[in-house]
Amino acid sequence: MRSKQQLSAAPENTKKMSRKAVANEYSAGSKATSRVASPNGSSRPSSRNPSRIPSENEDTDLDSLLDFADDEVNNEYWEQEFSDVVTNIVDRKRSSVQGREEAYAAFDRLSKFHYVHDELYGRVGELTAAFCKSLKQESSVRETTLALRALELLALSANDNTVYENVEPVLTRTIRDSSSNLVKSSAIRCLGSCAVFAGAGEDGMLDQMNFFLDIVASYGESISASHDTDCIEAALTEWGHLATHIWDLSAESEEAIEIFAEQLGGNDTGVQIAAGENIALLYEKSFSPRANFGEDEEEDDEDDEAEEDKKNNQDEDEEALLNYEGPRLVQRYEPYHDTPEILNQLKSLATAHSKRISKKDKKSLHTNFISIYTSVEDARRGPMYNTAINYNTNRHFGSKTRVKIGRDGVVAVDRWWKWIRLNKLRRLLLGGFYVHFNQGNQTVLDSLPLAVLRLDSETGTGQWKTDKGRKPQDTRRFAIHHDEDDGE
């Protein structure tokens, strides 16, 4: 990949080897370890739900996960509470581990459910230093992981591009040297967040993508977390989120897909889904609007241009079926040399029936990989694309994934880059997403610049509008569901 630094921590005798070679070296041990760890083929606790995409009959209200959501949203004195919490965090002279844990937990809670940009003014440097001190001391796993989450939320709300350069060395050291794999995986997610939200720039993001890809290729060995699925999944998801912010990944696509395809053969559902989503994203990125082609450079080879036009014309019948609004998408490059093999792997996971896989994981694999397979087969199709024909329009029903924001807003998530960014914000903010979205958190709006469909409460119809700066009406509604009415 294009990077200014070599961030890999691979052993000396593998430095000249490709990531694929390193991956093969560790893959056998990884699969064996996974099987020993779990008799049903999953190395995660059975209570963990790896699902990324809800089922077609599922309506997931994220705020229902939080018992204190109502109390926090209606907290009239949150500004004063937040000010007191910040003061306690910055003043560490008489603080205890338990006291810092409580202060960080309060900071995380208030930062999720309130847009604290103004309250952070002039305090970002002090808070960053306090959080980093906790990372360096690592007095307890809970304090360290809460400090990492606080750093993520600080990066999301402060809109301060100096944060990344101050925390990157500390986070990288934590990922490599921490004795806790839970801390390592949390630090990976924090580093990804700070890179995107706090000023890494494209070169910095590419460096971190390189770092995360090394973690995946070595099955965690490069950070002394051998076969730890939490670390591998974190590296995969953060790589994907970073990738959505890089315009051209043509040079990186081949190697990355090869490494992600290796992860499809593992036994952890969360890792498999994260790898599959990244593959779908890279295939999606190989397409771009036809209107943008040739604006900055002249086509010198007329034969190549004619051949491309012929290939595109062969897709006209399929294009007419696509339920996609916007300029026609045209493939600019082949993301991987052996797409049929990738499709075979994806199809196998979409129809997995092994008795070693739990019923819950099997359902998750089927739902997610049917969606991923459909997109890789034709990258113009987004998440949960429905290929059934709507006979009223003679077109596919298309992507039916919707995000319900408040009582009157619905957002269509019809591209993988949108879905991956949405998942990132969901993980960070949960039910607080609507507050940040509605109160104009610029980082959130820049990350997910989507239009909101204002629905008429009587007719159910509406118009697409940009939603900025409006005060929240109902912060307890941020649900994801799939339309089924059109398919009846």
TrEMBL record:
Pfam families: IFRD. SUPFAM superfamilies: ARM repeat. Residues 294-307 have a biased composition (Acidic residues). Residues 38-54 have a biased composition (Low complexity). InterPro entries: ARM-like, ARM-type_fold, IFRD, Interferon-rel_develop_reg_N. It comes from the Eukaryota. Residues 1-59, 290-322, 461-488 are annotated as: Disordered. Residues 465-488 have a biased composition (Basic and acidic residues). Residues 63-377 form the Interferon-related developmental regulator N-terminal domain. Belongs to the IFRD family. This is Interferon-related developmental regulator N-terminal domain-containing protein. The lineage of its organism: Eukaryota, Fungi, Dikarya, Ascomycota, Pezizomycotina.
